[in-house]
Amino acid sequence: MRNKKVTDTLPDSVVIENFDKFLKDNGKRRTPERSMILESALEFSRQFTVEDLVEALSNKNFIVSKATIYNTVLLLVEAGVFRQFSVENRSHFERADNVSFIHLMCEHCGKVKLVKDTNFMAYMNARRFPAFTTSYYNFTVYGVCNDCARKIKQAKRKRISDKKVK
Amino acid sequence: MRNKKVTDTLPDSVVIENFDKFLKDNGKRRTPERSMILESALEFSRQFTVEDLVEALSNKNFIVSKATIYNTVLLLVEAGVFRQFSVENRSHFERADNVSFIHLMCEHCGKVKLVKDTNFMAYMNARRFPAFTTSYYNFTVYGVCNDCARKIKQAKRKRISDKKVK
DNA sequence: TTTACTGCAAATATTTTGCAATATC
DNA sequence: GATATTGCAAAATATTTGCAGTAAA
After folding, report:
1. The domain B12-165: what is its CATH number?
2. Cα(A54)–Cα(A137) distance, rounded to whole angstroms?
3. Which whole number is the average pLDDT over A106-112?
4. How far is CA B131 from the centre of its chain?
5. What residues does each domain of chain A span?
6. Which nucleotides of D are covered by protein (CB under 7 A)?
7. Among residues 110-129 of chain B, which lie with CB inside 8 Å of chain A?
8. Could you tell me the maximum CA-CA distance found in chain A, to the nearest angstrom?
């Protein structure tokens, strides 16, 4: 049982195959834009926004219009490859095979760390709710990461010494 | 244990007092707009949007500008009375004392049901994460409520019979 | 050759901001 | 009376849409 992979994510190649299949099955086309966008999206280890994608693509000198990026990420969501959610009224995306991880979101820098908790997952996977059919769940813990805690403490110290100067 | 109130939240009067204290402590003023907005916000048993508030207030013939409503709900969040989150890139608000409930969100109608799970709460209250200081958490289960499941089934049946007619 | 896709620009929706008039403390 | 708050309108931000030209199948 040790280290039995519960939700380690699919290899990228499988994700790409799955998306190709989705396109074919739905009479949609495989275009260089779509391939590049998926490839770049998979390079994010965590979540990303449309803006992040624009930047990542432009760093590779691959210029794609925003309309196409929006179109494509929504297609990826439809295909079940990524999951869309909303943070501060902006769409974020993350691999659909990441969802059963606990998300630690830092309220200060916005970064998300994924944590696996097999006890919790086992419990939740077995859990049923009355009059409700579960499709997936998202567990996000909000707080402050140590990096930011340190910065906040330093800033506070500075503010106090500034006061003394006055 | 039976029928123990679903949400053991604070009484509204206490919430109002807390907000008043927050205003006083921060050199802010108590205005009729702020009082009415808080009162209306507390009448939502679950989450609500700014648009919901506009409607609720206008039903009471209390016309407040959107700018003031935005200003006030953000103040309520700052005061720790409500929590703000984002669904489909729109701000939603809910009482901060609701957060430790499991949220069952119907992907079809968007309604949220709160469920208490003492096992889960006890586990999470004790849970610590490395290099991270928790402030609160949100556990949302996405799926389809029975009401919507029924509607979807009916719609499907209709589609099939429509096809036969063709 | 058909028609799905791309990219641009315009449209939409939500939230934020600047500022004059007003009301609270 | 000083200044925080309100409301309006304009600005900012993210996303969606319409459409002409382009390219995948």
Report:
1. 1.10.10.10
2. 28
3. 82
4. 30
5. 12-165
6. 4-9, 14-18, 23-25
7. 113, 115, 117, 119-120, 123, 127, 129
8. 70
| Cα–Cα distance, A50 to A137 (Å, whole number) | 23
Question: Is nucleic acid strand D under 7 Å from B31's C-beta?
Answer: yes
- For residue A164, the model assigns a pLDDT of 45
Instruction: Give A9 or A159, the one with higher predicted confidence.
Output: A9
Distance measured from the CA of protein residue A5 to the C1' of nucleotide D16, in angstroms: 40
Contact B132 A146 (CB under 8 A): yes
Beta-strand relationship, A102-106 and A132-145:
parallel
Distances (CA, A) of A35 to A58, A105, A124: 15, 30, 35
Q: What is the pTM of this model?
A: 0.85
A99: contact with B, CB 8 A cutoff: no
pLDDT tens for B129-149 read: 999 999 888 899 999 999 989
pLDDT in tens, B14-28: 999 999 999 999 999
Verify whether the Cβ–Cβ distance A104 to B144 is below 8 Å: no
Interatomic separation, CA of residue A88 and C1' of nucleotide D15, rounded (Å): 14
Strand order in the sheet with B90-95: B48-49, B90-95, B82-87
From the list B106, B132, B144, the residue facing A104 with the nearest CB is: B132
**Structure-token match 């608000």, residue found:** B93
Place of tokens 């799926």: B143
Q: Which residues pair with B38 in a beta bridge?
A: none
Residue A8, SS3 per DSSP: coil
| CB A29 under 7 Å to nucleic chain C | yes
Q: Is the CB of A77 under 7 A from strand D?
A: no
- Which contacts of B28-32 are long-range, i.e. CB under 8 A and separated by 24 or more positions? B28/B75
Q: For B63-96, how does the pLDDT look when each residue is reduced to its tens digit (9 = 90+)?
A: 999 999 999 999 999 999 999 999 999 999 999 9
DSSP, res A107:
T
From CA B162, how far away is CA A78, in angstroms rounded? 26
